[in-house]
Amino acid sequence: MVIGTGKIELPPDRTLLVDGDCGRVIVNPQAADMPKVTPRTAYPSTSSETLHRPDRGMVRTADGVAVQISINVNDPAELDRIDPLTTAGIGLLRTEFLLPSPADIFNEDEQFAAYRRILQWAGEQPVTIRLFDLGGDKAFPAIAGEHGSFLGLRGVRLLLAKPEILRVQARALLRAASFGTLRLMLPMVTIPSEFETAARIIREEAETVLKLGKPHLLPPLGMMVETPAAALMLDGFSQADFFSFGTNDLGQYLAAAARDNPAVAGLHGEAAPAIFRLIDASMKNVAAMNKPTSICGDMASHPECLPDLLSCGLRHFSVAPARLAAIKLALTALTAERRQAVAG
Q1: φ, ψ (nearest 5 deg) of residue 205
Q2: Per-residue DSSP letters for 215-260?
Q3: How far apart are CA 211 and CA 77, in angstroms?
Q4: In whole angstroms, what is the distance from residue 271 CA to residue 111 CA?
Q5: Which segments of the chain have a pLDDT < 50?
Q6: Cα three-residue angle 340-342-344, rounded to 5 degrees
Q7: Which residues pair with 221 in a beta bridge?
Q8: So what's the pLDDT on residue 27?
Q9: In terms of Cα–Cα distance, which of 289, 300, 190, 290 is closest to 245?
Q10: Which domains does the chain have, with CATH numbers?
Q11: Spatial contact of 67 and 100, defined as CB atoms under 8 Å apart
Q12: Nearest to 177 by CA among 143, 243, 128
């Protein structure tokens, strides 16, 4: 299709030439215009070679910059409607929504089976699995208890306060890693010691699985960037293998407006320029560290946010599955050239 043309007045017996591949519309084309467009009588071939092209999860902006597009997954049922080869993999799997019962948080085999199924669906495509982000408005509030508010024990804070949860999940993930390309991601990291302690516990569980003689792999370990303290001090997280911006929480903490409170929900949109400024500053630190960085928050699924996110230097977007096609299309119409100022 071609979008953004505005209203076109076309009298009777006039010709309209539409080329959806290059985004051109010509009213009353002349003979010289016709060879520029090759009529298509059928859709592109879906041969095995075409389906297995390595760039199916990549698009190019209008100025030719490559951008990876992954998907966020809450429910494995979403994967039934998606061809894994149309994405750059799963950029965020929210494990707290994956399990049907609080008891499964302590069920290593049940978790292992769930993670293995998802990795097998993805094949060679990478899958980034976020460890349990309990607390706040997430599932199983009883696990977090009375201290599990947005500003209390949640994410990695809760995992370190109740390390038995982290240890069980780590063992299940380490065992599942043999079935695909797995990356682990810690939620709600604020200070480097949280990351370092969690990483040590995961390494300890790798030793435990090894002693049990079970196949396993120790995958890369990254972190969500969703607190202002972490965003401003990313250069202090040298142990992290990669970063991913979680703009849902980053926005609420930056605006001091809880995202589950409808009375202040509008502040998140109004505070968007401040979020872009913070991401821009963080990306300058990341550039010096040369670590892979993506965005998996809701901003990545909104076309109006894409120009500023591209200007910040982001080249990997993980979006809601229903927004995959729309975001790919929107990116092809944008330029990635960095502006002097981000968000005004």
Answers
A1: -70, -30
A2: ------EEEEE-SHHHHHTGGG-TT-S-EEE-HHHHHHHHHT--TT
A3: 35
A4: 38
A5: 21-22, 36-54, 340-341
A6: 100
A7: 184
A8: 80
A9: 300
A10: 1-40 (no CATH), 57-332 (3.20.20.60)
A11: no
A12: 128
Taking the model in full, what pTM does it have? 0.80
What does the block give as tokens for 185? 């991601």
DSSP string, 35-66: GGS---SSPPP--HHHHT-TTTTEEE-TT--E
pLDDT of residue 230: 98
Enter the tokens of residue 88: 């750059």
Cα–Cα nearest to 55, from 87, 24, 78, 21: 87
Output the CA torsion 56→62→67→73 (10° steps). -70
Query: Strands 66-73, 316-319: parallel, antiparallel or unpaired by DSSP?
Result: parallel
Q: What is the DSSP string of 164-210?
A: HHHHHHHHHHHHHGGGSEEEEEESS--SHHHHHHHHHHHHHHHHHHH
The tokens describing 94, both together, are 């929210």
Written as six digits, the tokens of 296 are 């998996």
pLDDT of residue 144: 64
Helix (H) or strand (E) holding 318: strand 316-319
pLDDT tens for each residue of 109-162: 999 999 999 999 999 999 999 999 987 666 566 576 666 677 888 999 999 999
d(CA 271, CA 166): 34
